[in-house]
Specification:
163 residues; mainly beta; OB fold (Dihydrolipoamide Acetyltransferase, E2P); 5-stranded mixed barrel; 6 strands; 14% helix; globular
């Protein structure tokens, strides 16, 4: 399932059994419709959990717009007053960040990029170019190959398609 909404508070990282960490956050999804000529708005809240990378928590701040993919669950419980209640949970498998539009978000992204650029990079060897080597032989020898250049000399063809 796919949901787009805004975070209601900053994400928190919780430590669970066996030193695993989970990022927890709450998402509000707004919807509107007309009923008997009157416009009505409904907000649905999801309690989300993301297990893949706790580093994303610093970007999940209150008001941020995010798109999440995953599966929905329902938790039924009794309140302290004895009333039956339910909450929607969302087990997130993928997150897309759209940000809150603040300059602070841009600064965080720039800091992350700067940190990544500052990390030492291992030297990458340029692949050797070989011709007519069967894939099995190339894989067995552990070599890296450049992509074939057989079609580089083929002229581009202008088509007359209307799109």
């Amino acid at each position: 399932m796919e949901v787009v909404g805004r975070l209601t508070a900053d994400a928190v990282i919780r430590k669970v059994a066996e030193d695993k960490k989970v990022v927890g956050f709450s998402l509000a999804v707004n919807d509107s419709f007309r009923s008997n000529g009157e416009r009505r708005e409904v907000t649905t809240f999801f309690e989300c959990s993301y297990w893949r990378n706790e580093g994303i928590a610093e970007f999940l701040t209150k008001g941020s717009l995010v798109q999440i993919y995953g599966r929905v669950g329902v938790n039924a419980y009794l309140s302290r007053d004895g009333e039956a209640r339910a909450s929607l949970t969302f087990h997130v498998s993928e997150i897309k960040l759209f940000g809150s539009g603040s300059a602070n978000d841009s600064q965080k992204v720039a800091e992350v990029k700067t940190q990544a650029e500052a990390e030492p990079k291992s030297e990458v060897k340029e692949p050797q170019e070989r011709e007519n080597v069967p894939m099995e032989q190339a894989v067995a020898s552990g070599s890296t190959l450049k992509p074939s250049t057989a079609f580089d000399s083929v002229p581009s063809v202008e088509d007359d398609l209307p799109f």
